[in-house]
């Protein structure tokens, strides 16, 4: 695995190769380097153009030329640097200047870094950045992405008011220019989409140049960031950030990393503004809840909590994948009542979950099947288009990029919902063929014959 960069106290990532170093004491503020957005739009996007000829190539934006000049002046890059920013189909990316071997490592200059801290785990880049108008947001009506986007937008607005009151206004001398809500959204978006995490003593770290590296679904490992020991000065050593590649890269090719293997496409859109082609990205989060009005609420909550669940449980349903294994026991617990409530008695405390892993009774199984089908139908009715209409739009092509993403997200959610509905519809049709608790108990007592006939009813 070749190192693309080695940087003092930078984020975790790894790829084919170059080294830079900057001690923690030289960290600089975010404002010390120009605002370069990852996905600039260019007319010529079918080829990769390195900045080797930045002065003579009109396709390289002036902002990028200024950025590269700043990197050179700061000693971030040198003649040995194997990668440069380049105009690529994604907008901007890192392009190799020469072949990079799998185990190669290059030495380089020092790199100033910007370190930002998040004061909450709910820090996101928002789909708001992608969909600024109400018309654009209406294209994801009914989706979970829309509700998440609006929640995040509301959250960040409240955070901005708090920061403005507690930090900006009391320290006007530190902020020579006004900071607007749009500036705050921009900063949060930059953090979420470009910062590296999981570093020594840091929540998030921004690294100029390194953060231009793009994602590819063909990369199936997140092992691209490392911290390695390196010289921090004439007589001192510190940890360096090393960005590496898991495969060799030819000169002129773009290098990629895997941003996150676990995120859904909705999360990719929210964080990065694009969808990924990797299988398993299309998901729908099904939220189930034990009602507080349930006469057995307390008992059911105790059982759920003893099995690492709670009053509310969220299950990620992935397109064309089996349902989560704990989903059926939780559904049966919610539906438990009537003559089946004996399973909630203290004598079943240690075994109730085991019993819930299998059908309890026909009434219980029928109730959970119909409840889930109702939830799916209700969710599907919330979209302003049908799946067939979305598929037709995709087939026709020539969609605006933002609309194409919206159509893809809402179509994927509908496919998952229809999959869930089909599973429980088919299960309801087969209820008569299932074995329930009563049947299993009779077998355990030896009261059922070879053909399933009841030999004797227990007293």
What does this structure look like?
The strands form five sheets. The chain has a three-stranded antiparallel beta sheet with strand order 1-10-9, with no helix packed on it. The protein contains 13 helices and 13 strands. A hairpin with a 5-residue loop joins strand 9 and strand 10 (237-245). Helix content is 34%, strand content 15%. Residues 5-57 and 103-128 have low confidence and may be disordered. It is elongated and about 90 Å long. It has helices at 62-73, 127-130, 134-138, 144-168, 181-194, 265-272, 297-305, 327-335, 352-356, 362-380, 387-396, 401-429, 437-444; strands spanning 2-8, 49-50, 83-88, 91-96, 114-116, 196-199, 202-206, 214-215, 225-231, 237-245, 256-257, 283-289, 312-318. It has two domains: 3-272, set domain protein methyltransferase, domain 1; 283-444, Rubisco LSMT, substrate-binding domain (set domain protein methyltransferase, domain 2, Alpha-Beta Complex). With 459 residues, it is an alpha+beta fold.
CATH superfamily annotation of the largest domain: set domain protein methyltransferase, domain 1
Q: Can you tell me the CATH topology of the largest domain?
A: set domain protein methyltransferase, domain 1
Give the tally of structural domains. 2
Provide the residue-averaged pLDDT: 77
- Strands of the biggest beta sheet: in what spatial order? 1-10-9
- What letter string, H or E per element, gives the SSE order? EEHEEEHHHHEEEEEEHEHEHHHHHH
Pfam families: Rubis-subs-bind
GO molecular function: methyltransferase activity
Keywords: Methyltransferase, S-adenosyl-L-methionine, Transferase
Organism: Ilex paraguariensis
